[in-house]
Amino acid sequence: MNIVGPKQRLSTRLAFLASGLAMSAWAPLVPFAKQRLSLGEAELGLLLLCLGAGSLLAMPVTGLLTARYGCRSVILISGALTALILPGLAFAPTPPALAVTLLAFGAAMGTLDVSMNVQAVIVERESGGALMSGFHGLFSVGGFIGAGLMALMLWAGLSPLASAGGIAVLVAACLVFCAPDLLAEPDVQKGGGPLFVMLHGAVIFIGVLCFLCFLAEGAILDWSALLLTAEQGLDTSRAGLGYAAFAIAMTVGRLTGDRVVRKLGGKRVLLLGGLCGACGFFGAVLAPSAPLALLGFVLIGLGASNIVPILFTAAGNQHAMPASLAIAAVTTLGYAGILAGPAMIGFVAHAVSLNLAFAGLGCAMLVIAASARLGAGRRA
After folding, report:
1. Are 334 and 208 in contact (CB under 8 A)?
2. According to its record, what are the GO cellular component terms (predicted)?
3. 249 assigned to some structural domain
4. What b-and-e string marks burial along 235-256, b requiring 16 or more CB atoms within 10 Å of the CB?
5. What is the rounded CA–CA span in Å between residue 328 and residue 339?
6. Which one of 130, 148, 181 terminates a domain?
7. What's the pTM value of the predicted model, to 2 decimals?
8. What residues make up the domain containing 122?
9. Sign of the torsion angle spanned by Cα atoms 142, 148, 151, 152
10. Domain count, the chain
């Protein structure tokens, strides 16, 4: 029987930290891969799709694996594969080789993502209090550390391979420290509990809300800089400030989110988060100056910070289907939003304008706010 205490909470945080470290290490390697393989923008874009495709293929299967073998085995194996594959991204010698490596890396990361969220749901449920925002906050912290260390090592003259290897060692170290206290047993009785069920309407509904939130996050990553430069007249050298403001606000919101959720409840936080995010999007569009637009990105980060953790908790606490399968389904739908977001915004921006596309994201956040009572689940 699984025993949940401080050690299990710490091991879960380390798993999220390891995932954030690994994921953030790829972005600084993209320019080197483009140069090394003499890739054009179109070729690079197709290769980048392999990362998302690998994750989307692996995520639905991970629910079955965690239900049968438990979180510990799946987290450790997928985490070890992530650490082993990561350096390969820095020296894949041909475009096909890089495509296969990205596909494998995406599959390992997708498996780690789902399995650590299943672990987080069980730990939070057995602990009897809100913990999910803090877990996701550690993923964000890992992202900052990983990207910062990669940039520092590359700036110091280390090769891309050595830099990626350094991050891989950190990921492996996190796994070694968390391994003894990860939940070993499945979240279902051995021999009991279905390994496949049809998606329930409640899970689909939660997944759609996750899709909308991740859609907004993906759009901020790829389009915030263009909004600030094209619509607000900000200098190109400062275009990254929008995403930086968003990411910092989201990290702060998640690290403090557990206390907020305990005090206000998941439904109110979902409602307020959706409204705050909507105000941020509308503010970024309507702001008369770049500083006010940056404030809009701060509001988006604060508003969105605890939406996904609350939805994951709701998916894990529903009783229509096993938690592991529900988390896998919701994660897959959410991740599809990250992949689809930039393209959808691009189509809308081309058809009408980027401002209207961002206003549409504000409307999506309003949908999340309006769905707070149902989306947060019964225990919220």
Report:
1. no
2. membrane
3. yes
4. eeeebebbbebbbbbbbbbbbb
5. 17
6. 181
7. 0.84
8. 6-181
9. negative
10. 2
Look at the chain and count its residues. Answer: 380
Q: Calculate the dihedral angle through the C-alpha atoms of 254, 255, 260, 262, rounding to the nearest 10 degrees.
A: 100
Mean pLDDT by 10 residues, the chain (380 residues): 80 94 87 85 80 89 87 94 95 92 94 92 87 92 88 89 95 94 66 54 89 88 80 74 88 93 92 96 91 93 94 86 85 85 80 89 95 66
Distance CA 6, CA 141 (A): 20
CATH at residue 370: 1.20.1250.20
Look at residue 190 in the predicted model and tell me its pLDDT.
Answer: 41
Q: What is the pLDDT of residue 47?
A: 84
Decide if 186 is inside a domain: no
Both 76 and 111 in a single domain?
A: yes
Question: Which sign does the torsion angle of CA 252, 253, 254, 260 carry?
Answer: positive
Evaluate whether residue 10 is within a structural domain. yes
Q: Is-contact 12 118, C-beta < 8 A?
A: no
Q: How far apart are CA 195 and CA 178, in angstroms?
A: 27
Structure tokens at 331: 């994660």
Does some domain include residue 196?
no
CA angle 376, 377, 380 (to 5 degrees): 70
246 and 129 inside one domain: no
CA dist., res. 57 & res. 196, Å (int)? 16
pLDDT confidence of residue 306: 93
Helices within the chain (DSSP H only): 6-26, 30-36, 41-69, 71-85, 95-127, 132-155, 160-178, 201-226, 241-255, 257-264, 266-286, 290-304, 307-317, 323-351, 354-370, 372-375
Residues 155 and 250 in one domain: no
